[in-house]
User: Fold this.
Amino acid sequence: MTEALDQVFVLLSRWLVSFLPAGWRPAAGVALSVAAIVCLFPALFALTVLLERKGLGRMQNRIGPNRVGPLGILQPIADGIKSLTKEDIVPTSADGVVHFLAPVVLATAVFMGFAVLPMGRNMTLAKMDAGLLFYFAIGASTELSVFMAGWSSRNKYSLLGAMRAVAQMISYEVPLLMSSVAVVMIAGSLSLDRIVEAQNHYTWGLPHWYIFTPWGFAGFVLFAIAATAETNRSPFDLPEGESELVAGYFTEYSGFKFALFFLGEYLAMFSISGLGATLFLGGWSAPFSFLGWVPSWIWFFGKLLVSMCVFIWMRGTLPRLRQDQLMNFAWKFVLPLTMLNLMVAALWHFLGDGWARWAVCSAILAVSYVGMAWVGMRRMHFGARSYRYAE
Amino acid sequence: MGHPAFSVSHREQVAPMSFVFYVLAAVTLAGALAAVLLKNTVHCALALTVAFAGLALLYLELDAQFAGFAQILVYIGAVAILIVFAILLTKGSETPKDGVYSKNWLAGLAIAAGVFAVLGWAVLESARVLPGSGGTPTAAPAVTVLQIGNALMGRYVLPLEIVALLLTAALIGAVIVAMHEKEETR
Amino acid sequence: MLGEGILKGMAETAKNFAGSFVSAERLTTVQYPEERIAPIEATRDFPFLVYDGADWEAGLRCVACQICEKECPPKCIYIEKSADKKPDYVGKPQFYPAKFDIDISVCMSCQICVEVCPFEAIKMDTEFELSTADRFGGLLFDRRRLAKPNEYYHRIHPAEAAAVDARLAEGKAKANVKQTNAAIAAAVKGAEIPARLPGGGD
Assistant:
């Protein structure tokens, strides 16, 4: 019974596809899965937008939207209708073709990233040996669409926002990759399915998720920081800082194209949370072995939703980082730590089983974290401000 | 989900000129031509990106997974961005007054044709020279990332380190050049 | 510890989030227009004219002295004096405003008209839901619209209205005393001064 519930979507798609002649079945199966992804994730996006507005509101001592439907549940529908019926304004001096293609490229690239995420047992759309590499390759294409959006608007503020966004995304791409490489090293494969399989073991009921190892914990934190910066999410949302650049690189977009950018940003958040869950949190595996009867896809989407809640929480808590602070942070702190993490992961592997490797790895990471921070903050003056008045 | 429909790691006899190949080749050629013939430089850069994407898909069609993904990651994700940044930060974004087509286009065409002839001859000869070619060309064995990694760390470790050194030197050089410019403008 | 500030901040927002469901201190939203906060004593919006009694025309305190019209900084008051007079609250015949218009799209709620009025006739109202589709005529209030009873004034500014009433009563008492003294003086002047008071002497 639990097995059937776990595989319910796989069985459903096989049953639906069995109505077609044998030659068409593989393609139909893939098309069905693609349709499922294309319908599911925008629905999750609508839910997340509502959750974000209500959640942020509560964190800021106010109620979020509550007029449309009970508790504001139908607010995303209202937002959707608004975006779709707004007039599509294209500035006359804007580059028409590129202006149109930018959100299309973004949406396409982001949707393609979902193809390699294992959303449950046997529930990966495309089982690739180099799945992780595919994901990062596609992710790199989103930078191009950001640039296209900013440049085609022929608006110097949009261009400035686009340049900042691209610089930020490129800077944080490297720590993102490096923190994932540690996982690849230990798991021994670039295939996301095999990485999840490697984490799906339990000792005394506790799972072997990589986050429960010193290098995995540090790697997860660094991955989370880099992921927040990759998706232009607070506190790294300077490119779309509403108070600075109107809306940054998508200032000149209205109506459906703006909705596509917004959708692309949230979908990128979903897919990178999914990747983080796959790499460090065990993907679709349950937290305790006695909870294995719960379907695997519930765990995956649960972890995804928890990540979204943390993203929203961070947005409600932290102020925005300035561009130079952001870049300094990336190159001078996050990147050296990820490289060190890589070496610590290797050390973990070669020290063999036992408590020694826990102590050594944790010690190295803690000391280097404190050391790097101390070095970086030497010139900063914290504490109460002193004022100097003109006399 | 779970149907390995377009099985990417499946060894098969690839027909030399399949429909997919024609489409991808057309896309790549169109991108490359547009990159040369368009007036706006940024448009040219974006068309070049399309050509890169076409190449990457061709690699993937040939089951060269690592090459395909590395092509996307490096060329589209980094080189294309570099090109557009270079265009924007210099005066390349303004279209030149006297047109973009060179006066010596005939000489250029001749040279390009010569290069193409040499490359084409090399490719056709290699089909004859490589093993397993008894008339019908077969697909190359699928090379996994594991094999590439082993080769890089085993047999080809010296070139890897030298390339790494070269890249580091380039990076440091770029930083130094930029820093010096900042010194001058002060 | 490093990163401690971030964690403390996150704890604070988590407290806000959880607390907003249980305590009113962490959810300060007032869902207007279903819920309204009671205005405080000193709330003010646009002026209105006070009248005593039931008849607004007869009881209107304003005597058209036009001081408020002259003192108003954006000149939003327009007064036309009447031709005849009617008695005021002490009985003295006074002019009254035939026209008293305030353009509330111009009025800046500075309360100067209230401060300079010697007759406690114009006071500040608290009504703010005055939206109208007519941008010009709908925002020009005539004296009928501006006249509101003293009871209303007591409702919106209880302490102030009580003080005003006390002042007016005092004024009325003083006026009564003056009147009585004047009547006695007139009576004494007009009558003969007897040598001796009738009915026995001192």
About this structure: Chain C has seven helices and eight strands.
